[in-house]
């Protein structure tokens, strides 16, 4: 059974002005998150990503539908039961949300103090977490004495204090520079792989999904327009929104502007061939063109590595007799994805 099951969930906020329209922030969302997943939720600003995670840890209540966490429908729980549920769900934020008046140690200890754990246990657990996030030497520092990356490490340690099974990361790297982002994503990967924590990552950056997530859901206007394994969505995006996100990180498919520039230099027909591991190889395809006496030149493209698997989009200029080109394209279609670019 999935660890988190989101079933036909809707969240409507009342109109903010009198006579205004209510806001359908989440509109009939279904999503299954399995234990051990790193699930990326991507969408533009206002798509409903933050609302969706706030529903998962019951910081907001649903308007309709159910959210089943570890077998329990959390939309039916009392406030007391919800407090217990939240101990099993950690959360980290874009702006870190640390207590500025507490030291690093004090910040990490906070959820354990709220849970009423004994002092000695808290001390031992905080020491363990400080080591885990590599901040043992900063235990007595205050947040404003730390870099952004260090603050987020404290955020992660605090979120893990109660040993949650789920970690929600809301734009956790959006305020960090690329190098620090890389480090924090590495730490989150360790959290997932070594501690077995299921992570839900909200982001508007596709490279965060690419480097961290195993599954992805693309949100637009409160709906999930596409979801699945990261490799599948990246190598074969179906919805226009997914195609836009994927094109920000995936090399290979020329934009309209690229095509215009290519046409100025090449007079042949263009096809884009998508290669995936397991399908026809590049040499299979090139041999086929060669056999038919069709000239081919690689004019645009690249090979991408996602989750240790490769796929490539190569755009070729083909020259030769039209009927021969048509026949080869038809034949190749059975073995590889090939689209004529017009
Ligand atoms: N408390 C609220 N009251 C009224 N409307 C809200 C509230 N919270 C969010 N909304 C609206 O719900 C929609 C979804 O917002 P949400 O913050 O979930 O989107 P998001 O995808 O996380 O965007 P961002 O990346 O900008 O945070 C938006 O139209 C937003 O204005």
Automatic annotation (TrEMBL):
GO terms for molecular function: ATP binding; ATP hydrolysis activity. Keywords: Amino-acid transport, ATP-binding, Cell membrane, Membrane, Nucleotide-binding, Translocase, Transport. InterPro entries: AAA+_ATPase, ABC_transporter-like_ATP-bd, ABC_transporter-like_CS, ACT-like_dom_sf, MetN_ABC, MetN_ABC_transporter-like, NIL_domain, P-loop_NTPase. PROSITE patterns: ABC_TRANSPORTER_1 (PS00211), ABC_TRANSPORTER_2 (PS50893). One of its GO terms (cellular component) is plasma membrane. Pfam families: ABC_tran, NIL. Residues 4-246 form the ABC transporter domain. One of its GO terms (biological process) is amino acid transport. It comes from the Bacteria. Homodimer. Forms a membrane-associated complex with FtsX. Part of the ABC transporter FtsEX involved in cellular division. Has ATPase activity. Belongs to the ABC transporter superfamily. This is ATP-binding cassette domain-containing protein. It comes from Labedella phragmitis.
């Amino acid at each position: 059974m999935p660890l988190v099951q989101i079933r036909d969930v809707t969240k409507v906020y009342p109109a903010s002005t009198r006579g205004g329209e209510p806001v359908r922030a989440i509109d009939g969302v279904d999503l299954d998150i399995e234990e051990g997943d790193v699930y990326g939720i991507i969408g533009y600003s206002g798509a409903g990503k933050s609302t969706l995670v706030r529903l998962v840890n019951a910081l907001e209540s649903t308007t309709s539908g159910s959210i089943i966490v570890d077998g329990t429908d959390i939309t039916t729980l009392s406030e007391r039961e919800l407090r217990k549920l939240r101990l099993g769900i950690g959360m980290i934020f874009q702006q870190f949300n640390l207590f500025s008046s507490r030291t690093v140690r004090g910040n990490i200890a906070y959820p354990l103090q709220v849970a009423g754990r004994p002092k000695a246990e808290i001390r031992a657990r905080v020491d363990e977490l400080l080591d885990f996030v590599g901040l043992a030497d900063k235990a007595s520092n205050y947040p404003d004495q730390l870099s952004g990356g260090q603050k987020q490490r404290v955020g992660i340690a605090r979120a893990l204090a109660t040993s949650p099974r789920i970690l929600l990361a809301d734009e956790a790297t959006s305020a960090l520079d690329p190098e620090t982002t890389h480090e924090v994503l590495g730490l989150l990967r360790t959290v997932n792989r070594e501690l077995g924590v299921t992570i839900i990552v909200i982001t508007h950056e596709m490279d965060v999904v690419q480097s961290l997530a195993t599954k992805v859901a693309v949100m637009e206007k409160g709906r999930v327009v596409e979801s699945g394994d990261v490799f599948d969505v990246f190598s074969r995006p179906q919805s226009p929104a997914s195609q836009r996100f994927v094109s920000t990180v995936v090399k290979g498919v020329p934009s309209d502007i690229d095509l215009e520039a290519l046409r100025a230099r090449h007079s042949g027909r263009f096809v884009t061939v998508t290669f995936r591991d397991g399908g026809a190889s590049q040499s299979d395809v090139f041999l086929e063109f060669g056999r038919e006496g069709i000239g081919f030149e690689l004019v645009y493209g690249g090979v991408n590595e996602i989750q240790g698997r490769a796929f490539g989009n190569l755009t070729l200029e083909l020259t030769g007799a039209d009927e021969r080109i048509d026949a080869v394209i038809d034949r190749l279609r059975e073995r590889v994805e090939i689209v004529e670019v017009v």
